[in-house]
Predict the 3D structure of the following.
Amino acid sequence: MGSAPAQIPTSFGHELRACLRCRLVKTYDQFRDAGCENCPFFKMEEDHERIVEVTTPNFNGIISVMDPSRSWAARWLRIGKFAPGCYTLAVSEPLTEEMQHICQEERVQYVPPKRM
Amino acid sequence: MDRKGKGKQIAGAGSSSGKKRKGGVEFRDEGLRINSKRKKPGVLQFFEESAEVGYYGGSSDEECDMDDVFNDMEDEPEVETSGKDDKGGKGKGSSSFVFPKEEEMNEDDYDRMMEERYKPGSGFVRYAADDVKSSIEMDALVPTAHDPPIWKIKCAIGREKHSVFCLMHKFVELRKIGTKLKILSVFFVEHVKGFIFIEADKEQDVLEACMSLNGIYATRMMLLPKSEAPHLLTVQRKTKTFSEGTWARIKSGKYKGDLAQVVAVSDTRGKALIKLIPRIDIAALTQKYGGGVVAQKASES
């Protein structure tokens, strides 16, 4: 039936944040409780300050992906390999250098946002 | 092909140019020079090299010239370039190419080079997955006939975001009880108000998904042309960044219509500090503090 979906945000206010690497959208509290399902190496559930470092409240557009493997939109947005969940179309800033380094060490892909 | 002793004799012992160089070649990590257009002289014809000319810092036919390689070896100052074939003006600033004389290379140097190349974080190693992703450069990828169609559905204005989350919740809840919501994804775009977009194989799937959900009017449904889809998903940076000193006009509230000037901008927070002329209601203030002289005549303000 597909992989387990990520937590879905339960509120829509300013607590919503998007992970800067995978663009998953959840509330701050959800990141604090369960970390990011696609980026467990950030260990947000252990280090709460990290949440502020790797997520941002500045993002544009939301897409709910039920079946990432079959969705064209998910593939186009490069989230086709991630868990089902709510993602944003674009984030405002890139990951810090330090965090990018962690991505490289973990051999995970990171694509910085395009500047229009 | 008379190369005056610089070409084919390199691999051999005791070439005229060979004896001028110190034993072992300093192998640079940047990569190998490629003679892309000529048959590689000497040992190089047996040397397998990548064809990525661009990676190795630019190329031109001229740079294939072996003479320049010797001439340009910057970090071997003691190497006397044989002036015989000096082609003068072809000297290149970038000396990021070296012949790998495998037989002559120092073991330690080789180890060091390999280590540098393959350590995590170096740009040298490229995985097949990377290439695939960048070659399907997402901007150019238009949905094909194999991809599911995208439907444009009318939605209550201002409730687009809510509807998108709602459908995701519905999917998760149905999944728990074993039913599968058949739509593949749903999204909204900031600048297209009053609509959400659902990716699904069949119109029926969309109708089922939107059934009994408030704010989604599935009866008004249109098929989106495939060519428009990438454009939708490309987020335009709608807010132009403005700098300090820009003028602005307040749109709502007490100061509606007033002129203001930007004092400071915080992009990360999406906020700006502005200054404007305060609107202070003196009468209300004085009454509040219970003081002041009440005007004898009723004054109109």
User: Anything to note?
Assistant: Chain A has a mean pLDDT of 88. Chain A has one domain: 16-105.
